[in-house]
Sequence to fold (641 residues):
Amino acid sequence: MKMIILNLSLFILLTISGNCFANEILFKDSVLRIIPSQINTEKASLFHQIAKSEQIPDSIRKYAYLSLSWAKLNSDKGMMGEAYKSIGASYHLASSYQNALIYYDSALLYLFEEDHSNTMARTYSNKCGIYIRFRSLDSAIYNNEKCKEYAAKTNDTELDRIYLKRKANIFSLQGDHQKSITTLRQLIQSHNLTPSNQILNYKDIGVNYFNMGMIDSALYYYQLVEQMNIDQFPQNKIILLNNKANAYIFIGDHESSIKCYLEAIKIADSIKYEYGLTLIKSNLANLYFEWDKFNEAIEIYKESLPYLENNAIYRNLATNYINIGISYNSLNKIDSSLKYLEMAKSVCLKTDDQALLSTTYHNLGRCHYSKNDFSLALDYYHLAIESNKRDHNINTKANIYHDMALSLSEIGNYHQALMLVDSASQIYNEIENTQQVVDVELSKAIILGQEGHYQKANEQLYEYINLKDSVFSKEKFQQISELETKYKTAEKEAEIQKHLAKIAANELEINQEKNKALTYGMLFTIAAIVLLIILIFLLKNRQKHQLEKSSLEQHSKELEGRLLRSQMNPHFIFNSLNSIQSYITSNDQYHAEIYLSKFAKLMRTILENSRHSFVSIEQDLSNLMIYMELEELRFEGKFKY
Fold:
């Protein structure tokens, strides 16, 4: 028995020192030869300690199963519960969440009988984390409250910290960001947090403000975190830079966002933080995607695939597969898109990630819609809806309804298509997604025209045009307001910097009076240096201000250019609508349908072009051709082109 205790102590010492090779020797020599076969409890305990010291999921699972086997021989239910929890944790780390939940539940059955409150609280907390990932918030809340219940029976303040952190995450996912912020502040005030945890909590407050659209407040907290010695925690700094980049993208400051991404990549490279590197590169690729640079985006997405595949980081892997598939679809490379979306589907089914699975099925449906295989597209849309029932993302649900309606209209099921369009429109209105409301109204007009209800289609087009003009004017006003705010903020910052420079100069003069022992030569030198620094600072600040002003003016001109391109001649619009109405009144359904179809196609193309800074010559020529066809039809062939 003394030899057993000695070897257990040696194992703990080696574990602390991180000597994995020595651990393996101890496992082979000490466990298999020194511990007598009849002492099953000690063997179960030692294997459990080895499992807890491992970092790789397969190794954790291997030793946890050995611990479980020896614990069963001795009917040690407490140790069996600990072993089941470790097996669950190994699946958790490998992103195999359904298996993790199964073993966590088994652990709770045995731990409950032995009243292992601390381990039970942590197991419930782990389950809560999985349900948060699944967006199954009711289950997440239940497990988090059970964690609190058992944590109250212990003196482990760390469990209360974890409980509050999970609670803040749940509030954030429910969209109640103010409650999430309040909970995070309670956590900061009530616990003596490590610097790393303090940084993460302040960062999360900033993320909540970002999700509320309060970008200034978000950037304030991000800057606050930067002042908290975050350089000591490079991984946290990488995450912070990623969040800052997202905030800058939101306000249109792409130059600052790219600087943040590049700095994050530099730090990740220096510390060999592969996971952080893949995260930042994926977000940088997202930025290229937003700029319609799909080939560049695909190249960056693919750079992260080997690391994600080798380390079984399934959620990020599936996300990259999906993004690559969507990018290929945007390039009209449908077969390549299907290839990567099928790979994403396999990963999502393996991990039972319903949120990403819904997105994957949705995009598979869009690919088959592009191939005019409308029946298969509908099959995938139905699968996407089934997965969405567990994900509870109503915006995604509305998008699927909209695409389903377009497929149904192509196969002649107009009644159901209109019902789905109305459902999508209702959801978009509830969540105030005005741009999608406009798109849905146009789709409704097209479906009505395809069904042969030309009068209703004509009325719907009037409604669409009025709504589009209203939304565009609102967006233009908001963008101009944002530009003005940004310009005023830049001016205000310049004034603050000048004021701080004056304060620094005043403090210097006071210090000079207090140190009369210094020679006049030293005073003159210091004053000259300070004035030189202030002069350089003011010159640089002025140059920066001028550059920002120039950038803002350029951005404003781009907005005006997009506005001009998106405007159609009102005279032409109402002439066209009157022509359609004339055909309908004279029961000339054939010409009414042709005219309505061409006019709707022209409107949709112009709406799509208004979202881009540049339009190809081919697209402009195509639009012009449709316009000429409409004019020829309206003037009944009185001119040729």
Summary: The CA atoms of residues 294 and 330 lie 7 Å apart. Residues 1-35, 471-500 have pLDDT under 50 and may be disordered. The chain has 29 helices and no strands. The two ends are 102 Å apart (CA to CA).
